[in-house]
Amino acid sequence: MNVKNIVDTLGLQIFSGEQGLDREITGGYTSDLLSDVMGHADARQIWITLQTHKNIMAIASLKELAAIILVKGYTPEQDTATQSNAENIPILGTTDEAFAISGKLYKLLEDAKL
Amino acid sequence: MQFQENCTSYWRMQNYKADLHIHTVLSPCGDLDMSPGRIVEEAKKKKIQILGITDHNTTRQCKVVKQMAAEENIFVMCGAEITTREEAHCLAFFENDEKLEVFQTYLDAHLPDIKNNPSYFGYQVAVDQNEEIIFQEERLLISALDQGINEIEKQVHALGGIFIPAHVDKPKFSLMSQLGFIPTDLQYDALELSKFTSKEVFLLQNKYLGNPAIIRNSDAHVPHLIGDAFTIFQLAELSFAELLKALHNKEGREIVAI
């Protein structure tokens, strides 16, 4: 499953990093503490957060994450989006809260294993 | 002439003991004993010459402390400990009452309207010299502002203020915990460390920072912890401008020890 499949299935908005929509996804990680994400997220995961600061792109790049989903209608700051385009790591958006979008993504990934 | 002036100024330099991160009774988590009078008394006992008053997201107790401290020749830097939208704590200080007032307006505009529940979080009251309550803040002061750290930094500096990310080494409410690392484009005047790490260890672990100004303060919420950590500054006199110079290692003003 790639980022594009998830965007289409869950009806996510694409803010930036469209060149990276073909990135493969193997799981997800939900956290707003960037130090926690840096320590515990794995490559090819999709990261669910409400943080919009440019540092989220540095973490995503460092950890080779597949994409970031911003919750509750948050939008990326301008320099965050610019970095996303440069790194080809998409930033996506939903109006869902983290709990709801995490549940939907979990179900989607589990169902794909069947 | 220039040389002579510099010489005179060096000759007048003195070391001053500072604790720039102190909460008063107005902070919900600040002990009710943290009245202006008690803070000044404790600072005098600990031979602190510069106090920073930094309540959570408010500046409204500072002026009374400043007035009372002046009687003991203790200099007070008025400011606040701001919770950014990322929930990173940052200290800000302003040179005079007018600038402090403008910043208070900014805080009022950006603090969410969530009511304090004193039985959970503690009372949020400001008091006068006689410890009579003069103000009660209804909104919960430990909420995060709706402004990101870069926006807040710009606002502080637009007012000529000093901007210092607080206890950056701590695993909660710090720039490091919330944003993973210190953003390389953030314009800070210094970084504050907690007493749990040394400057040497911290900079070794974070080589990308180069050689920033590092200070250390108590973050005291109770009287006996005032001065528990402190910074020694070399200054020509006690003023906001001198302290700002010391943070930037200018004209012989400097941080001597933490």
Explain how this protein is built.
The complex is a heterodimer of chains A (114) and B (258). Chain A has 114 residues and is of the alpha/beta class. Chain A has helices spanning 3-10, 34-40, 55-62, 78-87, 98-113, and strands at 13-16, 27-30, 45-49, 67-70, 91-93. Chain A starts with a helix and ends with a helix. Chain B has one domain (16-257): TIM Barrel (Alpha-Beta Barrel). Chain B has helices at residues 2-12, 36-45, 62-70, 97-110, 118-121, 149-158, 175-179, 199-205, 240-247; strands at residues 14-22, 50-56, 75-83, 89-94, 125-127, 133-136, 162-165, 191-193, 214-216, 231-235, 254-257. In chain B, the strands form 3 sheets. Chain B has a 7-stranded mixed sheet with strand order 7-4-3-2-1-10-11, sandwiched between helices. In chain B, strands 5-6 form a two-stranded antiparallel ribbon. In chain B, strands 8-9 form a two-stranded parallel ribbon. Chains A and B meet through helix 2 and helix 3 of A and helix 7 of B.
Task: Please name the defining characteristics of this protein.
heterodimer; A: 114 residues; 5 helices; globular; B: 258 residues; alpha/beta; TIM Barrel; 7-stranded mixed beta sheet; 11 strands
Could you give the topology of this structure?
The complex is a heterodimer of chains A (114) and B (258).
Chain A lengths: L2 H8 L2 E4 L10 E4 L3 H7 L4 E5 L5 H8 L4 E4 L7 H10 L3 E3 L4 H16 L1
Parallel strand pairs in A: 2-3, 3-4, 4-5
Antiparallel strand pairs in A: 1-5
Chain B lengths: L1 H11 L1 E9 L13 H10 L4 E7 L5 H9 L4 E9 L5 E6 L2 H14 L7 H4 L3 E3 L5 E4 L12 H10 L3 E4 L9 H5 L11 E3 L5 H7 L8 E3 L14 E5 L4 H8 L6 E4 L1
Parallel strand pairs in B: 1-2, 2-3, 8-9
Antiparallel strand pairs in B: 1-10, 3-4, 4-7, 5-6, 10-11
Total number of helices of chain B: 9
* Spatial separation of the terminal alpha carbons of chain A: 13 Å
Biggest chain-to-chain interface with counts:
A-B, 15 and 13 residues
Secondary-structure element sequence of chain A?
A: HEEHEHEHEH
